[in-house]
Amino acid sequence: MRGYSDGDPLFLPPPEIARNCPIPNLLDKRLVIVTGKGGVGKTTVAVALGLRAAGEGKRTIVCEVASQENASRMFAHTAVGFHEVEMEENLWSISIDPDESMREYVLLQLKVRAMRDLLFRSRIFNYLAAATPGLKELVTIGKIWELAQLDRKVKQGRKYDLVIVDAPATGHGVGFLQTPRTFASIARVGPIHSQAQTLDRFITDHEHTGTAIVALPEEMPVNESMTLERDLRDEVGVAVDRVYLNGLYPERFSKAEAEKLARLAEEENGAARSAARAALSEFGRARSQRAQLSRLRRGVEASVKTLPFLFEPELGVEAARRLARKLG
Amino acid sequence: MASLNEVLEGKAICICAGSGGVGKTTTSAAIASGMAAQGLKVCVLTIDPAKRLADSLGLKELGNEARRVDPSLFEAQGVEMKGELWAMMLDAKATFDELIARQAPDEESRDRVLNNRIYQQISSALAGSQEYMAMEKLFELHTEGDFDLLVLDTPPTRNALDFLDAPKRLTQFIEGKSLRVFMKPTGLAAKVTGRGVSVALSVFKRIVGFDLLADLAEFFNAFSGMVDGFQARAKRVNKLLADPATCFLVVCGPQGEPIDEAVYFHRKLVEAKLPFGGVVVNKVHYPADELQGDIEDLPGTLAEKLGDPDLAKRVAANFADYQALAERDAHNIDHLASELRTSVVIRVPHLDEDVHDLAGLAQIDRYLFATAEQRVEMAAGRA
Question: Fewer CB within 10 Å, N or C, chain A?
Answer without folding.
Answer: N
